Amino acid sequence: xxxxxxxxxxxxxxxxxxxxxxxxxxxxxxxxxxxxxxxxxxxxxxxxxxxxxxxxxxxxxxxxxxxxxxxxxxxxxxxxxxxxxxxxxxxxxxxxxxxxxxxxxxxxxxxxxxxxxxxxxxxxxxxxxxxxxxxxxxxxxxxxxxxxxxxxxxxxxxxxxxxxxxxxxxxxxxxxxxxxxxxxxxxxxxxxxxxxxxxxxxxxxxxxxxxxxxxxxxxxxxxxxxxxxxxxxxxxxxxxxxxxxxxxxxxxxxxxxxxxxxxxxxxxxxxxxxxxxxxxxxxxxxxxxxxxxxxxxxxxxxxxxxxxxxxxxxxxxxxxxxxxxxxxxxxxxxxxxxxxxxxxxxxxxxxxxxxxxxxxxxxxxxxx
Length: 368
Hints:
The chain is of the alpha+beta class. Helix content is 20%, strand content 44%.
């Protein structure tokens, strides 16, 4: 049962409590949403308000396949009640059921496995109750898949939902022509301070590969992950793509600031007050080399670390050399130590998330 307190301005009527009876589950939920659209100015005890409630209830039920409900209103306005109660007793009636579904694919979608799977899973079964939301969602899935896979000339040539109310039957009739699928063209980089060949080796697809929004997003991610750029915007260029279905991409990037300095002050019970500083140079040259230097200073402990990264042309994001050096001086509890460390490594960041590396380490410790 739905119970709703509907307040009207004083100039119109007193507050009215509306109780809708006879519904449950999704029917009740959908009708509640429709009733929430009633404005305060429409609230009252007269026939106009009842007509508005009647309309909202029917709309909520119709969307879920119940086209012929019966709705009976009674007003309880006995003396002593804090507010009148308008009862709406609803019988949803017999639902409209799917009697047939004609879904025709044309163009590349006709043999596209993703589209065939979509139709197989989205086609309604004969006898199920009509749901307008499912019908609209299926049509949206057809066009959404077209955008994700590069069917940019797709057209819904027919989309009809036929309903025979007296027979309680509904029919889907959809013709969808995806057209030809577009392919990736050349990626043009603008605004970059990094060599073109390094950037091209970041592209996760080849010219002539079928367009995919996932591949486009991956290119954005890879360019951003280099830390060479403040901003990355990759967009298709449709100007000359209509005829040959080859879609060039424009990649507009802006270089990251060459120098970034971060400082901080901290405290720990082991070393007391501590000052930290980091100097980052995300790119040193047009090959994307980077340098990071960090220092930490406290009364008993001083540490300096340096990391130099050399991306490899073959795969600048996932294959690189690292040269790391560190110097640490400690004077604590009558013990002095100096530690020096140098590490050279060859790194492979694997697509599985694992990292493979070959390391050569030299370390020297001196205690006094």
